[in-house]
User: Fold this.
Amino acid sequence: MDLPLSNDRTWSVDEFDSGKALAHAARQAKQRNYDQFPIIDVDSHHYELESFNEILEYMPDPVLKQLAKMANSGNSKGVGVMPGGVGYQDMGGRAIRYPLRRIEKPEPGVHRDVSLTRRWMDAMGVDIAVLFPSPMLQLGLHPQVEAEVALAFAYNRWLSERVLQEEARIRTMIYLPFNDPDASYRMVKEFAGKKGVCGFMITSVRFRPVHHNSYMKVYSAIEETGLPLAFHAGYNWGEQSMGMMNKFIAVHALGFVWYNMVHMTNWVLNALPERFPKLKVIWIESGLAWLPFLIQRLDNEYMMRSSECPGLKKLPGEYITDMFYTSQPMEIPRDMSLLESTFKCIKAESQLLYSSDYPHWDFDLPSTIYDLPFLKEKAKRDILGGNAAKLFKLDIGKDKLAKVA
Amino acid sequence: MPEVFVAKIADLPEGERKIIQSGAHDIGVFHWDGQFYAYANMCLHQGGPACEGLIMHQVEDVIGPDKTWVGQKFSDSQVNFVCPWHGYEYDLKTGECVPDRSLRLKKYKVVRRGDDIYVAI
Ligand code: FES
Assistant:
């Protein structure tokens, strides 16, 4: 495959293998003895459009199914079906796995998603990975609510039958078509207890208030399952305020925090943690630096305006530090004492869950946690796997499933 | 200082690079503008294979005499190699990390002997 480079040069590449591309990660895994303890990656991805025709076979609506199959048969795969648009995650191919993934071959007889996912998991020393889709992170922007519902059911049924059944090391938190509360409720009922399902996930990029009464039955149903609910961040250059930004770095840096800030603020100030005291909530892929900001901001204003939030029994920040957070993209500041303070502020030793976000451009290796100078060995192991094992009630024990060479 | 054979000059043409391993040394050797450069293939960010990614000219802003932004272009002279994991860019001629030049990759001396290229380790 010929990659276009600067000043009209090209680079010809014949093959790509995710495992080989992560050979340095495998070396780190060995040097840091990752074979001694489990590593659970709570946020990783695959590219569902690579299997879109398979997914569409699970589409319940025959008319939408035909529209989508036709859209996917032309040159522009999936265009017109899936929202999303401008964005340069691959940095002009500088994150080289983006273009080269197209020429990566799976092991014969193994599903492509299983094969490629196992490769990077073994290289990093990851035992269990929670897998999420990629373009579907923006599906909450689909103008047709019924299309989000149909695609979500198709994707979840396909993932469950074709991927989760084949590899026990791959898990997921089920995508909820949150623009339709009734369909979200039905989704919880259909998938709770299915193999590989370790929770439920709302993509944050959407315009629905999480405190709306129509969602209470969804949260109750999830609370009953004992599984966590996650909010997965994303970006949206189409958002009016983001439209003032001319660089993807700006849209990404702010967007991945913005929607989770909105949902978190609504979640806490409407006292949902008091209404659903057993429901565990995880906030995914907003990094960590936003949390001390939001805690300070809400606590300060709440002291003056508590009459607006009569449901709260403690400070907003105290609810925030009861919740769970995935680590990536963990901001590494010039002054490491800032990160140390953030860890203390969010009770990271019990609430933080390692995540790689692999194969996305800003993925984090387990060493981003393991090499932190201010953590003791037990805290490192808890963040890398122990906290997630407890939260998801995983039966991993002390077994090491990844092949750390 | 021991030397490790890299390649025959003819086998490492202008614009190409070669990765060599010798014991604990993992080195990227580049041929650019008639010169050879060698650096540790170990990114300063998360330890990725810094020398194995794209070779890209530096992106530059074009600013007009009235300070307005006119556009952007690729540099005619400065070229970087890019770590394929997350995009850290390194100046190919110095090994400095472009967004913070106080950071730099370990540099190795390249020795030409006849038609052969070696690095001193
Ligand atoms: S490891 Fe090189 S850019 Fe991250």
